[in-house]
Amino acid sequence: MPLLEANLAAVSQNYDVIALAHSDVDSTMTWVSENLKGEITIGFSTSDMRDNLKIIGQPISLIIDTDGNILSREYGYVPNDL
Q1: Would you say residue 38 lies in a domain?
Q2: Each residue of 59-78: pLDDT tens digit?
Q3: Structural domain tally of the chain?
Q4: Which domain does 50 fall in, by range?
């Protein structure tokens, strides 16, 4: 998250940045309130969405064009002290 947080304001000027969380709202919002630096729109995924976007792991960063095509997919770092 540090790389995203450091660039969030600049990236948000040209792109819609959405953090997509799995469906557990309470634990996600607790983590966000305790850890996130900056503002970001948070959406919650569904099984259909994960299947359609072929999300097989997390964290993941997707760049999706306005036609819904995935332009980039990158799986991120998962700290082992969680």
Answers
A1: yes
A2: 777 888 888 888 888 876 65
A3: 1
A4: 2-75
Closest CA to 15 of 7, 6, 3: 7
Give 16-29 pLDDT, tens digit per residue: 777 777 768 888 88
Q: What is d(CA 82, CA 71) in angstroms, rounded to the nearest whole number?
A: 30
Residue 6 DSSP label: H
Q: Biggest alpha carbon distance in the chain? A: 38
Would you say residue 80 lies in a domain?
no
Residue 53 main-chain phi, psi, to 5 deg = -90, 0
CB 42 within 8 Å of CB 32: yes
Domain assignment of residue 7, yes or no: yes
DSSP state of 79: -
